[in-house]
Write a structure and sequence with these properties.
heterodimer; A: about 220 residues; mainly alpha; 9 helices; about 75% helix; B: mainly alpha; about 0% strand; elongated
Chain lengths: ~220, ~200
């Protein structure tokens, strides 16, 4: 067993015991203590949840709201949580469903409202402006373009392929874990992952080739 | 070894084949050795290129997400989650309807309200009285008629009226017919010819 897997198991055990404790405290009407114990779970999963929500929503404020909603929903429905399923999986399912609902609502809204163009000093650029290693402006620009291209390509993936790709590749889940979260068959998960990569290769292929050429030119000069 | 198997081993893997190998490795979480990749360095290089491209995508996405969710933002999010949880558990508060520091209506408007009420009352009374008067008029007329009718009936036949004499009437009508038949106006003769005579009518 690798260190990460061992850590995962320990984390799952801790999650399971925390979830059981919160459930018991809620049932006993000790809400303040239940919240205190729930804070443990929130702290452990918040970063990952924000990452997943951001991959789906591509908007910080909306991802933030989706994460909040998912944690509030999970707390209020904790009585329906079965211990045989890892809390992480159960919670991720709630989060992804919430994100997909929000995306649907946004699509409906955008059908009627013209989108605002992103300003040069928009919220999305905040991260790039305060990035730690101070990359050159050219690198920043290239990274930004690459991310935008990737976001556009991901937006073109069907819902299931997107979920499978994000969970498998970005979050490092195995096909078994993805299958539990998405409710898809394990072999179907593999097929979706394969198709998602093929489609991304097609969509980003030309851009990727051009980028590689630019990088090579920069190295030679 | 069959020719097909040898071909399979010697022919280079296409992009789909490389993706399938990568997908299998990713799905199981274990890197498996592949016979062709072990023996073919160009395919191994292409596979490495695919893996590195995918790793770049992952790193880009993860970095972007982390940059957008710095620790301060996560702390604010944490606090907001617990504010919402507390609010959800607190029993619903009934907010009293806001009372105004000063009444919205002044004294002058009190007077105007009284005037409006008096005008409305006057109107209602006027209409009511009018209706009553009408009713009274119609009632008195009906009473008068009712009083007149029985008196007439009680009085019987007017003494000035003569009893009808049938013989005299017939003679009168015959005279009238005769006078009409002798009408001297020539223009009216044709019309007269069309007009039925009383004597001709069946009895």
């Amino acid at each position: 067993m690798t260190g990460a897997q061992a850590a995962g198991f320990t984390g799952r055990e801790a999650d399971s015991s925390a979830a059981s404790a919160v459930k018991a405290l809620q049932a006993g009407g000790r809400h303040a203590e239940a919240r205190e114990r729930y804070a443990e779970l929130v702290g452990r999963h918040q970063r990952r949840a924000s990452r997943i929500a951001f991959h789906y929503m591509r908007d910080v404020a909306e991802a933030d709201e989706a994460v909040q909603d998912a944690f509030v929903k999970a707390y209020s429905h904790l009585s329906s949580f079965r211990e045989e399923l890892p809390f992480e999986v159960w919670f991720t399912r709630i989060l992804i469903n919430g994100c997909l609902d929000r995306i649907k609502a946004r699509t409906r809204r955008e059908r009627w409202i013209a989108p605002m163009p992103d300003g040069p000093a928009g919220e999305r650029d905040f991260g790039e402006r305060v990035a730690g290693n101070d990359p050159s402006p050219e690198d920043q620009l290239l990274a930004r373009e690459r991310r935008e291209r990737l976001a556009r390509a991901l937006a073109k993936l069907p819902e299931r392929q997107l979920s499978v790709f994000m969970l498998s590749h970005y979050e490092g889940c195995t096909s078994r874990e993805v299958s539990v979260v998405t409710g898809l068959n394990e072999s179907t998960v593999r097929v979706h992952l394969f198709r998602a990569i093929r489609k991304l290769r097609t969509l980003l292929g030309e851009g990727h080739a051009a980028e590689t050429k630019v990088e090579k030119r920069r190295v030679h000069s | 070894m069959s020719i097909l198997n040898r071909l399979r081993l010697t022919a280079h893997l296409d992009d789909a084949g490389l993706t399938a190998i990568w997908t299998d490795a990713s799905a199981t979480g274990v890197r498996q050795s592949h016979a062709h990749l072990e023996s073919c360095s160009p395919c191994r290089a292409r596979y490495a290129e695919l893996a590195s491209w995918l790793e770049t995508l992952r790193l880009d996405a993860t970095t972007e997400a982390h940059e957008n969710f710095p620790p301060e933002r996560l702390a604010a999010q944490h606090a907001q989650i617990f504010r919402r949880l507390e609010a959800a558990e607190r029993p619903a508060r009934v907010i009293a309807f806001p009372r105004f520091a000063q009444p919205l209506t002044s004294r002058t408007s009190h007077a105007s309200r009284w005037i409006a009420a008096a005008a409305a009352a006057g109107l209602i009374v006027g209409v009511g009285v009018g209706q009553l008067m009408d009713l009274r008029h119609s009632l008195s007329r009906a009473t008068t008629e009712a009083r007149v009718a029985p008196t007439t009936m009680a009085r019987g036949v007017d003494p000035r009226m003569q009893p009808v004499n049938v013989t005299r009437d017939e003679a009168f009508l015959s005279d009238l017919d005769a006078s009409l038949s002798r009408a001297a106006v020539p223009e009216l003769r044709a019309l007269d010819a069309f007009t039925p005579r009383a004597s001709e009518l069946p009895r």
